[in-house]
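How it folds
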Amino acid sequence: MRILLIEDNEDDAYLIRETLAGRTAVAIDLEWVNRLGSGLTRLVHDSMDAVLLDLSLPDSQGLDTFDKVHAQNPEVPIVVMTGCDDEGTAIQAVQRGAQDYLVKKQLDGDRLVRALRYAIERHRAERRLRQSTEQLRALTGHLETVREKERTRIARELHDQLGQMLTGLKMDVSWLNKRLGNTKQADDLSPLLMKTQSMTALIDETLVALRRLIAELRPAVLDHLGLVAALEWQAEEFHRRTGLVCDFCGSVKQVTLDSAGTTAVFRIVQEALTNVMRHAKATRVTIRLEEEREVLRLAVEDDGRGITDTEAAGRSSFGILGLRERVALLGGRMTLHGRPGQGTTLAAHIPLTRIEDVA
């Protein structure tokens, strides 16, 4: 077990070395440096299992010392060991990523060894969990891509085959209707004429339903005119289907995104509107889209009942979980804030450069 000790006090360093000697079945190789700069260099060139860090050094003081070491190698667990017995500093250190916070005057050999062992094992567990989360997220992204491709394929098949078949059927029924109406026995064939007219109406209804289904699977406007036009269309479509007022406000005319990024952002808005329709009890929804410093800022606001903190946490809502995951896949962050009786605001900040990389 290789431990890097960054400590400027030579006597303290000696005591720590003696304290650790012979305390574990695994040999401890303690390497001591008395300056932060030297410690940072060691972290670059040598493989360490953990760092014992004093926050007060000649070339660095306080939590800045921890931040610099953590930034140099985030994969090495850090145990802070200092003479400063301050609970506030201890809490901040742990929040920033420290595995433990030890006060020198309260330290004994067993506690120090236990802290190091726990820090290493805890950090390994965190790394495994992080890797597992990244793998699951990558799988989710892959499945989302596959699903979107399948939607596009099905929409194209419906348009090219079923749409053409229905159009051809309508033409045949119209031809039959005209022929029946022009015969000498037209009066006798009136029931049949009414039937063909009913068939024509049914075919028209089927074509309308088919176009709606195709649009839900993959809106053509998304591919042909881009994200802004697609969101404008979605706002109008949402108003037509639900009766709720839906406004789109965008400060940009065109967002530079590839197909995958455009689709992901569009689906986020779709899912957000679905949640509004199902749960918000709103009368008005506003979609906002802005671009600032290579960050896409998206917001969906409603004037409904206002989501509660428990609901916003999304532990039991697959809709909210899906929204968070979609935003996370794009390297962004999402917030969901409700005001009782005044509505809910969903805000997502998505780095445009990351979207290009993910795609």
User: Anything to note?
Assistant: The longest strand covers residues 284-292. The chain has a mean pLDDT of 86. The domain at 2-107 is CATH 3.40.50.2300 (Rossmann fold).
